[in-house]
Write a structure and sequence with these properties.
single chain; alpha/beta; 2,3-Dihydroxybiphenyl 1,2-Dioxygenase, domain 1; Signal recognition particle alu RNA binding heterodimer, srp9/1; 2 domains; five-stranded mixed β-sheet; 3 helices
Length: 172
Amino acid sequence: MGKVTGLGHFGIFVKDMPKMVDFYTNVLGLTLTDRGVEDRIVFLSARPGEEHHEIALAKSDDQKTDAGQISFHVDTLDDLRVLHRRVEEYGCEFDRIVNHGIAFGCYFHDPEDNRVEIYWSTGIDYPQPYADPIDIHAPDAELMRALDDLAPRRGTGPHHYGKDVGKRMSVG
């Protein structure tokens, strides 16, 4: 039986292509992999050796993408802090920085007001939805303790993701 094997890429409409390319390449660190005639479309990838593009920016003066959020994964907690600083220095304000149990997520809006999350996966299983505010600048030991101190929660499904640390209570 055929099935989807993962999310390949997504596209968003943008008005100011140079500004958006600058933000996604120089602030978030994506690689520009291709572009259309007159930059009507630009392709970006976090993993250009594996994926030609994970996001396409399409120029449009009259259309706007209304995605709930665009989320980008980072490899380490330090990477999350570095990107948090870069985004803040660029002038974007964070409106939510939380411990999801499964991840630490930092939420903001890009230069054209698209909701963006950058997150670091903790590698542990924890029922969702869950979000507890954290200080991203707190010492590693304090943030890891927040994960250790998570109370067991009833999940709506079985364990599928991450390390089972005994925090997921079975349904029913």
